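ugh ok fine here u go
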Amino acid sequence: MALRSAPRALDRAPSRRRQRRARRAARRLPPRRLHALRVPRMKLCIQQPAYWPWLGFIDRVARCDVAILLDHVALEHNTRTQFTNRNKVRTADGWTWLTVPVRARDERGAVPIERVEIADDGRWRRKHLATLRQSYGGARGWGRHAEWIESLYAHEWSTLAPLVEATTRRLLDAFEVGTPLVRSSALASRTHKSQLVLDLCLELGADCYLSGPFGRDYLDRAAFERAGVRIEFHDYAHPEYEQLHAGFHSHMSALDLALTHPDRARAILGARMGEALAA
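structure:
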């Protein structure tokens, strides 16, 4: 199906004024009242939390007024889309996984992401920090982020969600993205699949949902249309840039770009912001 160009106002990231309005509203409300958040002409995205998320995650959040971290659902086990406790970084030999060991089940079965525990005694923290130092210690942005990264891995994390949110917020700051984050566990909607997405949009008063490409397979477009919520699809075109090590490997953690091009990271990400979205 041919892609239609989105209206000009939707091609760009939300204005800083709209993002500030949403952020102020989110901060004023306690978790039990986040459903009262309303921003006129709100565009919203929903993503499972990701450990050191990739550029597509950052880009989708940057295009929205509010982003929901879907943390009340069980950990995704699809190896194509499972990045809640792992992600990829460059190495001199190519790339490697950084994986946080977790306990995703208890005696009653799978537990929601917000309650997933980290499984070992901290060896993973030493390993991840050593990998990042070895891979990016010579990068231009290492000095800018090293102290924070080292403090992250010095902390004794017991559960996954706070760790993942910390890495996400750090990268959003690095890319100058001010979109407020809301945890789904703080909201009331507890339906499933397409209905859950629609209910979360309605709960926060969004009139536009920015979906990932897989949304084409399961979203009930007729239900969204009846509810007055427009759907757009985010088909991220990954930029190519000079990496610290030879060759180019796409779909690394966004940390790769933030560390190798700290002063141009937003511009490289933003080069894609004017491209039309599929409606």
